[in-house]
Amino acid sequence: MHTRDLIQFLAELSENNNRAWFVMNKPRYDILRMEFLELVAKLIADISKFDPEVANCNPRKALFRINRDMRFSRDKSPYKTTFSAAITATGLKRPNQGGGPAYYFHIDADGVLLIAGGEYMPPPDRLRIIRGHVVADGAGFDRLLKNKRMRQSYGTLQEEGKLVRPPKGFDADEPHIEYIKLKSFIVWNETNLKKNMPADLNKHLAASFKDAYPLVAWLRQAR
Question: Are 18 and 78 in contact (CB under 8 A)?
Answer without folding.
Answer: yes
